[in-house]
Structure formats: structure tokens, C-alpha cells
Protein: PstB3
Organism: Desulforapulum autotrophicum
Amino acid sequence: RSKIKIRDLDFFYNDHQVLSCINETIPENAITAIVGPSGAGKSTFLSLLNRLWENIPGSRIKGRVLVRFSGKQCDEFTDINAPGFSAIQLRRSVGMVFQTPNPLPMSIFNNVSFPLKLAGIKKRAEVEERVTKAIQASGLWPEVKDRLEKKATVLSGGQQQRLCMARALVMAPEILLLDEPTSSLDPASSKKIEDLMVELKERCTLVMVSHGPEQVKAISDHVIEFLPES
Ligand code: ADP
Ligand code: ADP
């Protein structure tokens, strides 16, 4: 079953066309890997799935990015770039994890509760429950349960990346975008993130940019390859 359909998609930074006539289907509850050489447009493609590209002056999209959000009729797709579709709704449905862990300069607890704060979810019991569950889902709970008030920067790089996963998961996203989530980590930490991604297929559709052929082979169900810039 497909979760995202990309139709006749072109993308430009000013006059520079980065993506040209892309047609792809991304399956639900699976890991899709985006591969290709540096400069091929992989990160740009991810940014089209959560409209992050809108912040870049001179950027322009043509074509459609269609998402089947849960709770809708089973074959109803929404064009996330259509004028009526709200970016706020998109922020709640799509989580993102970057290449380098980017914890906020605050406590471990507050890093994970931050998206809830932005969404106006303030009830203490609910916040505590959702933060605890997200940290548990990230596999980090035993390592941090006694130091939730400590700054996130006390954690190792691998732990910080799992914290960033927890921060994305606290909103229970339907889609999780990951831009080379393990490329700044040592092998043991990478393996933990990979295992976590496989577990998350149960409740998420994952789209990952990856540079590692072994990683792609080991954990992805579907591959989209972008060719070098012409
Ligand atoms: P990849 O992730 O495959 O390395 P990117 O999506 O980062 O590729 O970049 C694709 C092309 O778009 C490159 O030529 C890059 O220089 C260009 N590009 C990326 N970001 C911007 C930007 N903010 N403004 C202008 N050009 C950009
Ligand atoms: P602020 O940054 O505004 O000072 P706090 O650090 O007190 O806020 O935390 C904000 C909310 O997060 C509080 O309402 C509290 O319920 C919750 N919180 C913070 N730390 C913990 C913790 N270790 N366990 C449970 N809840 C916590």
C-alpha cells in the first residue's frame, strides 16, 4: 500500500533545476532509501516531503506530492503543496531527523517535550507520559531515566541522535524523514539507530537518505536512486 505518491515533480533553486520529472511511490510501513551521488538532490527531495524547501528564497516546485494521511478514506491522497493544505498539520504528521544530532540547549526532558509545547499540549500528566513513551521507544530510557534534568549535551553523539529520534517520535508522526541519520555515528551507535528504524516500521513510514550501500541493503525495503547532476 502506498503512503506517498510523487507526480511529475520538478524542483528549482532559482534557475537551477535540481529535480526533473520525478515519479515515485513510497510504500507505507516500510523503509525507503534515497541514494545517489553528492549533489544529486537527495536532501532537496526530503525537504519536499515536509515543505522545508519553502524557507529557501528562490526555490520553486512544480508537480504534486501526494500523501495519504491516516484517518482519511483509504485511497484519499492530499497534495501537501496545495494552497489550502496547512503546514501546521504537516508538522504534526511528519517528523525529521538530521545527519548531525541537533539537541536544543536545554534539558533532556525539555528537548523531547519541546514539540508538544509548540503544539500547545501543556497538561503535565500528558506531557510526562508522552515524553516517557517517546524516550522508551528510542531505546534511551535506561540510560537517561535518572538524569532527565541534565543538559542534553552530557549525552554521547549516539545517545543525542536517539534523543533526536525521541523528539521526532513524541508527536507520533505518520512519516519519519531521516537525512543520513547514522553518518556521524560510530558503528555500534549506528546499529542501534538502524534497529530502531526497523522497529518503527510498525507505526511509521520511513524515508531515509543514505550513503551506505550496506545499510541500504540491510534495512531498506524500497530504493529510490537519483542520478548525478548533469
Ligand atoms: P544531495 O543531498 O544529493 O547531496 P542536495 O539536495 O543537497 O543534494 O543538492 C542538490 C543541488 O542543489 C546541488 O547542486 C546543490 O548545490 C543545490 N542546492 C542545495 N541547496 C541549495 C540552496 N539552498 N540554494 C541553492 N542551491 C542549493
Ligand atoms: P521550564 O523550562 O519552563 O523551567 P521545567 O524544566 O520545569 O520548565 O519543565 C517543564 C515541564 O516539564 C514541567 O511542567 C514538568 O512537569 C515537566 N518535567 C520536567 N522535568 C521532568 C521530569 N524529570 N519528569 C517529569 N516531568 C518533568
